[in-house]
Design the sequence.
């Protein structure tokens, strides 16, 4: 009778019922667990041996995370960014990265990562693309944007548990002139 307790042949997925399916599922679970263990091991000969095999699995599962984001070189400064859209008529609008978590912290983290990539003065290409995006989505519709200026505000952080500097400093990370065809 189908659906009775202990009767796995009628209602269970075929993969679970067949011995070959059970072996396949067991192998997948073992590979996944070994990959997780290898990925999170401290640096060692064993880890270096396992990582080349674990990397494709971890990438496919979206689990390529590393504790290296916390050490050995944590950030030494707190930072923010304001972006100026300077128009040909002499007016200026200011745009800042969203910091509310209405849709969850992952949205805030995504914007923070974007800001982190743009702050780097060597990432001019990223800043140029972001400037063009701002011109398309945030600028006044009836006035052309002449330039987009990325202002990086920062202050040194104190040692762990200590307050950072009170005074914020500022530098221009990028000054991009917008050209129209």
Sequence:
């Amino acid at each position: 009778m189908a659906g009775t307790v202990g009767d796995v042949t009628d209602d269970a997925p075929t993969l679970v019922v067949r011995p070959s399916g059970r072996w396949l599922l067991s192998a997948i679970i073992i590979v996944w667990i070994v990959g997780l263990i290898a990925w999170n091991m401290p640096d060692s000969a064993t880890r270096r041996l396992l990582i080349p095999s674990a990397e494709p699995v971890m990438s496919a599962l979206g689990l390529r995370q590393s504790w290296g984001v916390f050490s050995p070189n944590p950030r030494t400064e707190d930072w923010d960014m304001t972006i100026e859209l300077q128009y040909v008529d002499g007016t200026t609008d200011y745009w800042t990265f969203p910091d509310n978590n209405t849709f969850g912290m992952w949205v805030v983290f995504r914007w923070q990562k974007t800001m982190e990539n743009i702050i780097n003065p060597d990432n001019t290409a990223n800043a140029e693309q972001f400037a063009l995006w701002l011109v398309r989505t945030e600028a006044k519709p009836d006035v052309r944007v002449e330039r987009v200026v990325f202002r990086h505000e920062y202050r040194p952080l104190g040692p762990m548990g200590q307050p950072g500097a009170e005074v914020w400093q500022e530098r221009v990370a990028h000054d991009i002139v917008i050209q129209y065809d």
